[in-house]
Amino acid sequence: MYAPTPDDWRQANRARWDERVAVHAAGDYYDLDSFLAGREALRDFEIAEVGDVTGRTLLHLQCHIGLDTLSWARHGAAQVVGLDFSEPAVEAARGLARSLDLPPERAMFVAADVYEAAEAVPDPAYDIVYTGVGALNWLPDVDRWAETAASLVRPGGFLYLAEFHPLTDCLDDETGSTVAYDYFSREAWVDETPGTYADPAAETVHNRSVEWQHPLGDVVSALAAAGLRIDFLHEHDATLFARYQALRRHADGYYRFPADRPRIPMMYSLKATRPAVG
Length: 278
Hints:
Elements: E1 2-3, H1 9-26, H2 32-36, H3 44-50, E2 57-61, H4 67-74, E3 79-84, H5 87-99, E4 107-111, H6 117-120, E5 126-131, H7 142-151, E6 153-164, E7 188-191, E8 209-211, H8 216-225, E9 229-236, E10 248-249, E11 255-256, E12 267-273
Parallel strand pairs: 2-3, 2-5, 3-4, 5-6
Antiparallel strand pairs: 1-7, 6-12, 7-8, 9-12, 10-11
């Protein structure tokens, strides 16, 4: 339900994520054994749009247990730093890095709030600042996020964001064909659903979550106001899970509407560069 932002939103969300780390690490959704054996965790469009990361430094904000972060190291990044507010998630990520024989100078993980990232990470700026899917909805202030993220982009470097499209949260849950929720709402969405997207049947205790919807225009405008130049904004007609009952899973692993249904954007990605000095 929509509600004013509660004072304990950060504590509630941290308790929820802390509890779910063990579920995610043990389950089939993240399938850590196959990841450690070489399975790709990044989406194909992310790899294509970010491009060659060989020899570059990369900061991953809101990294959870670090699969995407470590994948960029596998793709040749000289150093990756993952940041997450959940200490159990950071410990799990560090364990994965050790299992992959990646020393701290190649793969480092930091437990800190994303709004405090500039004070928590080891370097003042990075070639690439990356944020993966399912991150911005946990933050109440997208302007503050953009200012923080942009401050960590080295001149000539860029921010890359891949996210679920905010339009998807406005449509009815069953068919995805009727507008059911306010696209422009600035209130929090407070929920008590147990389990997790990785295992809906998991028995969990800390079930309260507080999330926010950020219209696409707000995200783009916030990054531009923070001094970044928008290089591209791509909208994708596919998503990573069965958001609506009408979606069908395709051979490439993405979910799409049947061919006889009009398409809508369900994910988006953008790249924003900090102009080089001089």
